[in-house]
Design brief:
Blueprint: H1 3-7, H2 14-28, H3 33-72, E1 102-105, E2 111-113, E3 119-131, E4 137-150, E5 153-163, E6 169-172, H4 173-178, E7 182-186, E8 189-193, E9 199-206, E10 209-212
Helix pairs in contact: 2-3
């Protein structure tokens, strides 16, 4: 019988069982407290032994599993001058030129870009502190206006922060809605309309993200 069933299967009942065993020991030995105390110590010792045995069994099990998996790994020994195949494990999740791409982000509170060349005009301001999703902060060097060329024409976006500590341009859905824009979903597209209800941006779902790349056609 596995010790796991004994120790871990009844862990929540352990205090009640000890209390019950202690009462039974006192009753059995006719209220001889010294003898009952010794009996209870023996019972506690048995329980402790079960814990230790379970720990030892789990330790042995982990060692056996590790030994099994280690034996499945082929030893790699290379010599100087030997030709080998190198596997590059870097995964590129977002395709296209990141400097031109904009991620439509519903959790971002500001439009942000790291590329200074995208700005039509940029005003350097005092360092602005921007809070990010993990509670930390990044710093913006300035604020300005950018122009994005789309199939629907050139779109101007104002109030964009210049942040060097990011590697992806971010378009804030919340800020667009605050400015009077409207958003909707249709046939795996993210549709953004301006104040006059004209289509502002149409972004297709790619790799579970709404990434707008003006260099690519639908």
């Amino acid at each position: 019988m596995s010790p796991y069933r004994i120790v871990f299967g009844k862990a929540c009942y352990l205090p009640i069982e000890i209390e019950h065993c202690a009462y039974y020991a006192v009753k059995r030995y006719n209220l001889v407290f010294d003898q009952a105390g010794k009996e209870r110590k023996l019972q506690l010792q048995e329980i402790e032994e079960l814990h230790l045995e379970a720990y030892e069994n789990s330790k042995v099990y982990k060692e056996k599993v590790k030994r099994f998996h280690d034996n499945m790994i082929l030893r790699k020994e290379f010599k100087v001058g030997q030709k080998v195949l190198l596997f590059n494990s870097h995964l590129k999740l977002i395709t296209g030129n990141n400097s031109e791409c904009w991620l439509i982000d519903s959790s971002c509170t500001n439009h942000m870009t790291y590329d200074k060349s995208l700005f039509k005009d940029l005003k350097l301001t005092n360092v602005l502190k921007v809070r990010i999703w993990n509670g930390g902060h990044i710093f913006a060097k300035g604020r300005g206006t950018i122009a994005i060329s789309t199939s629907l024409g050139t779109k101007v976006i104002s109030n964009v922060l210049h942040v060097l500590d990011i590697d992806q341009n971010l378009l804030s859905v919340g800020l667009l809605i605050e400015k009077g824009f409207k958003v909707s979903f249709k046939h795996q597209h993210y549709l953004i309309y301006d104040i006059a209800s004209r289509e502002f941006l149409k972004v297709k779902l790619r790799d579970k993200s709404f990434l707008f790349d003006p260099t690519q056609k639908e």
